[in-house]
Write a structure and sequence with these properties.
mainly beta, Methylamine Dehydrogenase, Chain H, five-stranded mixed β-sheet, five-stranded antiparallel β-sheet, 8% helix, 32% strand
Length: 753
């Protein structure tokens, strides 16, 4: 009988698809899937467009809180800073044909998960997993921009779908060496060929010194060669003994991992590292493009084009573009290399750095193609983004950050609404908006133009129109969202899904606080790409994965986190409306599927402990416990635990506390330009009816003064979140409780509502 019913259901679904009377059957996951693209490299392709144009399930109409949300998450070992990759229909060695997504972590683990396995248990086993190299804390310690102090796999791998090979670079914590692996994605992630240690001496006799280098930019596979780039291991720190870090690009033949090229960006000087906020090298024809960071030499703070050749050393400088103020950028740590370039057809490059300016270049000549009139030192490019928290010209000017190792860096905390003129954006990373990573491009937005999107730090999400015929980007934004990045670092990291020229959604992962010096919670949000209206968002309590875009494929959105988890979102099964018979067929099909075990919810002490682990434990923004987990001893049988943490950078956008004014000298090698930091108290409270949630600083103090969970407000029902203070446009915080809210700002303090 069951077979008859299943056959009838299949016939109904097939008929509905053929007649196109109910496309929502497919949306429910109950019908045949439409075509979809694999995601084999960071931002989808060697141009780093970040777009997939074959997404037929996710549309602005159906991505909202009622139909779209978390499907499941999976436990992994370590934080994820590499973009998840996706391959459809992998014929595995012993698990049949599977749609796989791949995760690489900073503890050197690589995982292959079945994308269609929606078991809600986070401990569901992967199809394959493997640790490539030893993992441990970096010794000696590096700066706090890597709170975990673990540097394993920190670049996005690249997959050759034709051969079923994933290329990935892992750092061995025992000796600090980097190894390039070629993994079989269908057979237990085994090595297809012996891995190779990355080492070379360039034509000038400069040797690669891995002890002070990090492979941060995503790998590039171009013309049968895998390209790997390096910058500083941490915060522009040189090697022991004074050997400088440098920028490096290595090429290895994909078929045998033989060395095919090497290039050093600064043989005559030092530095000019390549990090690009995780964005990959751009490849077009035989050319490779990238942006460099701080450095005094010919290629410091520059756009660079290399040309691949058969002759040694296999890579040669073809052209460069270096802004006139590159020396000022170097002096103030306002490097151009925080961003990565985007290649636009038929042959243009666009990218920017910490100043928030876009540079539009002719990729064939590396010459500037457009510029905006302005002061002599800012004549190049155009000011695409501003520090929107400090753009009111009628406010007093911001001072200089007293503790900074960079004497021109801006103090934006002492006078909360002070003004930073765009001419000062070159004076330090605390002054300007900061572009991190590369933009996203919707090539099919219109027959005559495409749209370039980015959420820079401290500014609103924007889209700029690119005229395909004139090869020109409008200097005035075409679209501006009402959503902006929090004050501080790092802005948002994005992807775009569309069904060709319609149903486009812009997806952004961004921090709910200053994510530069501490791990902070993050948000995944979806926007209608034609209006930049927010459609949906989810926080989930996960830590923000810095510089890591979400991956969109086959109706799913895969979100990297630093919480030891990967989260997968999609349309809830058969939740969308449709014709009565398609809904009936969907319900019957759903009833015949094996029932998944319900997700086991943790209670009491275990729930508090899990929330702390999700928030990063002692490497997260909560810091270290200041008490044991304890029962509240109330009718709700609640539990709580207190913590003491330290926030560096923009305090009010991260926790409900005022910036510290205590004097403290900078700590060289740790956080040399960030000031002393601000200590704060926080708690996690749990009850069976509300779950476990975080409250911090002055909001916490006000709530506890009113009786805490046994007072009139009751338990928190959500984690504390940033909010915009309407009166000032500045950063504030809000906590929501069972029977009211508490809002907070540095100017107004805590207010119970």
């Amino acid at each position: 009988m069951a077979a008859v019913i299943a056959t009838l259901i299949a016939a109904l679904i097939d008929l509905s698809l053929v007649l196109s009377l109910s496309p929502l059957v497919a949306l429910c996951g109950c019908g045949q899937r439409g075509l979809s693209s694999n995601v084999l490299t960071q931002h989808n392709d060697p141009a780093r467009s970040g777009e997939t144009l074959a997404e037929t399930r996710l549309t602005p109409r159906y991505v909202d809180a009622s139909t779209f949300g978390l499907l499941y998450d999976r436990n992994v070992d370590g934080g994820i800073v590499a973009q998840p990759l996706y391959v459809r229909g992998v014929q595995t060695s012993d698990q049949g044909r599977r749609d796989l997504f791949f995760i690489a972590t900073e503890t050197n683990w690589v995982y292959a998960f079945d994308a269609e396995d929606t078991d809600p248990d986070p401990a569901t086993k992967p199809i394959f997993s493997r640790q490539l190299q030893a993992s441990g804390r970096v010794r000696p310690a590096i700066c706090d921009e890597t709170p975990s102090q673990r540097v394993g796999i920190t670049s996005t791998p690249v997959i050759d779908a034709a051969s079923g090979t994933m290329y990935v670079v892992a750092r061995d914590s025992n000796d600090g060496q980097y190894t390039l692996h070629a993994l079989d994605i269908a057979n237990h992630l085994d090595d297809r060929r012996p891995p190779v240690r990355i080492a070379a001496t360039d034509a000038n006799g400069i040797a690669f010194t891995p002890a002070c280098q990090r492979n941060r930019p995503a790998l590039l596979l171009l013309n049968g060669v895998v390209y790997v780039a390096f910058g500083s291991l941490g915060c522009d720190r040189d090697c022991p003994g004074g050997v400088p870090y440098r920028g490096w690009v290595f090429g290895y033949r994909a078929n045998d991992l033989a060395k095919a090229g090497v290039f050093c960006t600064s043989p005559e000087s030092s530095h000019a590292g390549i990090w690009q906020g995780g964005s990959g090298l751009v490849g077009s024809g035989k050319s490779i493009y990238f942006q460099t960071g701080n450095g005094p030499g010919l290629l410091g703070n520059a756009f660079v084009e290399l040309r691949a050749s058969e002759a040694g050393p296999g890579l040669a400088l073809a052209a460069k573009y270096q802004p006139a103020n590159h020396e000022a950028l170097d002096r103030a740590d306002t490097d151009l290399g925080s961003g990565g370039p985007l290649w636009l057809p038929p042959g243009m490059l666009v990218g920017g750095g910490k100043e928030g300016r876009y540079f539009v270049l002719d990729a064939g000549t590396m010459s500037l193609a457009q510029e905006q009139a302005g002061p002599a030192h800012q004549a190049a490019g155009f000011q695409a983004f501003v520090n929107s928290y400090h753009e009111a010209i009628d406010q007093p000017p911001c001072g200089v950050l007293a503790q900074s190792a960079f004497p021109t860096n801006c103090d934006t905390a002492t006078i909360p609404r002070c003004y930073v003129a765009p001419a000062r954006y070159q004076d330090g990373e605390d002054c300007g908006p900061n572009i991190n990573g590369g933009p996203v491009y919707w090539s099919a937005a219109n027959p005559s133009y495409g749209l370039v999107y980015q959420m820079a730090g401290r500014d609103y999400l924007k889209a700029f129109r690119y005229d395909k015929n004139a090869r020109h980007i409008d200097e005035t934004p075409f679209l501006i969202s009402t959503v902006r990045a929090e004050e501080g670092m790092t802005g948002g990291f994005s992807s775009l899904s569309a069904n060709g020229d319609r149903d486009a959604i812009f997806w952004a992962s961004y921090p709910l606080g200053d994510g530069q010096w501490q791990n902070v919670p993050g948000r995944l949000a979806a926007f209608d790409a034609t209006t930049l209206r927010e459609l949906w968002h989810d926080d989930g309590g996960y830590l923000f994965a810095k510089f890591t875009p979400p991956t969109v494929a086959d109706g799913k959105v895969i979100r990297a986190t630093l919480s030891g988890k990967v989260a997968v979102y999609g349309l809830r099964p058969c939740s969308s409306p449709g014709s009565w018979w398609s809904r009936l067929a969907a319900r019957l099909a759903s009833a015949l599927r094996p029932e998944a075990s319900p997700r086991r919810e943790l209670v009491g002490r275990a729930a508090v402990d899990e929330k702390y682990r999700l928030a990063g434990g002692d490497t997260g923004f909560l810091g270290v416990p200041s008490s044991e987990a304890r029962p509240v001893k109330d009718r709700a049988d609640g539990w709580y635990r207190d913590f003491r943490g330290l926030v560096i950078g923009s305090v009010p956008s991260t926790v409900a506390a005022r910036p510290s004014t205590r004097p403290e000298p900078p700590a060289p090698g740790k956080r040399p330009w960030s000031g002393p930091g601000t200590f704060f108290a926080s708690s996690i409270y749990w009850s069976g009816r509300t779950g476990a949630h975080i409250v911090t600083g002055e909001i916490r103090a006000t709530w506890l003064a009113q009786g805490g969970p046994t007072g009139p407000l009751g338990y928190p029902v959500a984690d504390e979140q940033p909010m915009e203070v309407a009166a000032t446009g500045g950063a504030g915080r809000v906590s929501r409780f069972e029977h009211g809210d508490i809002t907070w700002s540095a100017a107004g303090g805590a207010i119970v509502r």
